[in-house]
Design brief:
With about 325 residues, the chain is an alpha/beta fold. The chain folds into 3 domains: about 180 residues, 3-Layer(aba) Sandwich (Rossmann fold); about 70 residues, Roll (Ubiquitin-like (UB roll)), CATH 3.10.20; about 80 residues, NADH-ubiquinone oxidoreductase 51kDa subunit, iron-sulphur binding domain (de novo design (two linked rop proteins), Up-down Bundle). The protein is built from 13 helices and 9 strands. Strands 6-5-9-7-8 form a 5-stranded mixed β-sheet. A 4-stranded parallel β-sheet has the order 3-2-1-4, with helices on both faces. A hairpin with a 6-residue loop joins strand 7 and strand 8. Helix 4 packs across helix 7, helix 9 packs antiparallel against helix 10 and helix 10 runs antiparallel to helix 11. The longest helix has 20 residues. It is globular, with a radius of gyration of 20 Å. It starts with a helix and ends with a helix. The protein binds iron/sulfur cluster (SF4). Iron/sulfur cluster binds next to helix 10 and helix 12.
């Protein structure tokens, strides 16, 4: 295990679900927890987080469709190296509906090879938050838990649990076989001629990604990077300097797009996906949608304090993410135009 941890560290493998936490640190934490828990909850679990529910992000779907062999290889490595008792795929239910035959056959083949694996269907955006995911698998209400303890310490059923995104497990398989090449998957979409999933170097700026995929619009544009709802918005000039983080999406919008409709699309998404556990997010997202629906002009002054409360007091990253697209759109695009 130590050997692979070192390789993950050298290759700088980070979580590709959004948080970008170094993979080797998770492995170390699980190893330490397993060493300390010989009389505790016993061997842990490996969970592949394949819930992928954010708009304009579909790279995990692409990997499942085209590179499932590498994903399963990454899962097997993680189970073998940690000595976990089981590997679980928390899988977007819509993806599972279209890939059931293939994935079930792969699970059966893995079982024949001595690996215990199963698929659990994920049905919501918050089900991709790692502790909400644990609750859902345990049959509890799908909402985030307080951290610490982190899943690597006390995860599924109280046992140390390694949770990795689909692309992270794919990268781990490449590192183990010595073919990792410092690239990642990008979902490129929006007002462009060639939307799709592209695997390109992690060092490219957003503008270089658009150029290399022949997706630079003819008209003035801006783009949202990282996530289709929670991503940061940058204007055309800034895109020449910004690399793409988070879930790896690049969503292109034309400058002439209706700002109120774009804001409503983001806020309706957050309001719909809010799990309702904490008041700032449950009420704040509702109030933001209402404010926009009730005003012909965007009521920035009324929205500002609500966004501030969301950022400072929400229980989890969903609520804290709401101000990111809204305020960066205002600051980087609307205020300048
Ligand atoms: S921030 Fe939103 S999604 Fe997160 S716990 Fe609070 S209500 Fe639920």
């Amino acid at each position: 295990m130590a050997d692979l941890i070192l390789k993950l560290q050298k290759a700088n493998i980070i979580g590709r679900g959004g948080a970008e936490y170094p993979a080797h640190k998770k492995w170390e934490a699980v190893r330490n927890a397993l060493n300390q828990s010989s009389k505790g909850p016993g061997l842990g679990y490996v969970i592949c987080n394949a819930s992928e529910h954010e708009p304009a992000v579909s790279k995990d779907h692409f990997i499942l469709e085209h590179h499932a062999d590498k994903l399963f290889e990454g899962m097997k490595l993680a189970i073998k190296e940690t000595g976990a008792r089981e590997g679980i795929f928390s899988l977007n239910a819509k993806y599972y509906a279209t890939m059931k035959t293939d994935l079930d056959a792969r699970i059966a083949a893995a079982k024949k090879d001595g690996f215990s694996m199963r698929i659990v269907e994920a049905t919501s955006y918050i089900g991709g938050e790692e502790t909400a995911l644990l609750n859902a698998i345990e049959g509890r209400r799908c909402e985030p838990r307080l951290k610490p303890p982190f899943p690597t310490q006390q995860g599924l059923h109280g046992a140390p649990t390694l949770i990795h995104n689909v692309e992270t497990l794919y990268d781990i398989a490449l590192v183990a076989e010595g073919t990792y090449d410092d690239k990642r998957f990008y979902t490129v979409s929006g007002a462009i001629p060639h939307p799709g999933i592209y695997r390109l170097p992690v060092t490219l700026t957003a503008l270089q990604i658009l150029e290399q995929t022949e997706n630079v619009p003819q008209q003035e544009f801006f783009a949202q990077l990282g996530g289709g709802a929670s991503g940061t918005v940058f204007d055309q000039q800034q895109l020449a300097h910004e690399t793409v983080h988070g879930a790896g999406s690049v969503v292109v919008h034309l400058l002439k797009e209706n700002p109120r409709e774009l804001l409503l699309a983001w806020l309706n998404f957050f309001h719909k996906e809010s799990c309702g556990k904490c008041t700032p997010c449950r009420e704040g997202t509702y109030q933001l949608v209402r404010l926009l629906e009730d005003h012909k002009r965007i009521p920035w002054k009324k929205m500002q304090p609500i966004l501030e409360v969301l950022e400072k007091t929400s229980f989890c990253a969903l609520g804290r993410s709401v101000p990111i697209p809204v305020l960066s759109y205002y600051r980087n695009v609307l205020k300048k135009s």
